[in-house]
């Protein structure tokens, strides 16, 4: 996986350009701190030479003062460089994170079915975190330390060409040896990270499934799996730590060797009267200083592999295009609208090409009427709801809302005009208010309370401990399944859609919540077109029309009263079979 250089450049330009001011600040701080690091030893060298040669003693306090001031300034500029570096990195990576989240959200459901939330989290957070090093440290440090390294070597060449040549040779050898050794540490650390990802994945799964695990007495088996992973993890960790320690020892050994070379060289040159004692100190000091950029460059190049993998994965994600074609076309009616399915054929991605989830489905529901959809599990009922919101596009046929084909309407407008209450209401760890408005501060409490009033849910709201301020806990704790459905109805009501789709929860509700729900549904459906995917026959009482699906095909469609009066109709037989009282 080799990423062309211009792709790094494009990424940097994209995310650093908007904060060029901070980047300029960072570059100035970095270059100044490097220059000061190289200048200061020269003052010390002058200090030592002045003492040894008995030069102007009155200049010494000034030299000492200048040395201290420059040392202080070096720290100030290093600190500023770190501050600007972190600011630039955070801003750039947050922008990238936002772009990735926005991109993932606009991808259609087939993408989300193919990628687990954990995988997307790893991309949006893990990979972007790795990139923050790229923005803040990799470029800056490789660039900064590269300049420091070259600066030190140039000064050494000026001080004494022989010392310059020897230490340039040493720097080259040290850098290549350390880079060669680092490859030995990469594989064990990659394996360590892989096991770590597996470990946290398993842990997350076990915590999410704790109720089932405990209820089924599966704790010992789950713990066994947990211990097995831990057992496998430890030796890999030891191996990785060992590889890093070898690398550390090698680098300490190399720089000790560098110091020995510098000392021997300085002593030899001093004896030959080729350099002053101050210059001898300079050679020794600069050799010591060399270790910093060499170590840093090694570390950063090591990170580059991880960064390269992250850039590759992020680019791959960003290049995925939504399958749904955006259109600005036909506007949708703002009042109750007709719903038409005309010869609709649909199958999910990856499904057998001979099978259809929906097979030539046609029906037409007049505006303001309610359609009840019945069918065995897996017959395609929820698929109809997903298609109406264009979570997927159909393979052939046409779906219309009012007069317009939904394939030709703007997606955001479509999703504004169609309200869906699913079986699993998604609640957030936030207040009831935020759960109702989806964090939109423009929806005032008055509007929410009016909606509650219209849906006859004000008494229910009053029964919550803190009304709209009631905080829902993790995994929607604080509300029962029935209450969550009530909340979902208010959410949809606040959208004021033309079409409401209710994919009913099949779970049993207590009579009181069921009564609340029924009344709220009545109010929600008034003056709107409705589609109810019914699990409770009770709900069908309000349906004007009935559609029965079997393996994706419409086996019966018609007016509810008419179907009821025909004893041969599947609907009438279904009701009879369930000995349900007819309305
Ligand atoms: N994302 C998907 N990818 C592939 N197949 C799917 C997908 N979603 C649903 N299916 C399949 O499509 C068929 C219809 O599913 P659908 O959810 O519409 O059924 P349903 O009638 O609503 O069932 P239930 O009453 O159990 O909710 C099923 O066979 C299901 O396995």
UniProtKB/TrEMBL annotation:
ABC transporter domain location: 339-576
Superkingdom field: Bacteria
Membrane topology reported for the UniProt record: Multi-pass membrane protein
Annotated SUPFAM superfamilies: ABC transporter transmembrane region, P-loop containing nucleoside triphosphate hydrolases
ABC transmembrane type-1 domain sequence ranges: 24-306
Transmembrane segments: 20-39, 59-79, 138-158, 164-181, 246-270
Annotated signal sequence range: none
Pfam families hit by this protein: ABC_membrane, ABC_tran
Cellular localization per UniProt: Cell membrane
Entry protein name: ABC transporter ATP-binding protein
Keywords (A to Z) from UniProt: ATP-binding, Membrane, Nucleotide-binding, Transmembrane, Transmembrane helix
MF annotations from Gene Ontology: ATP binding
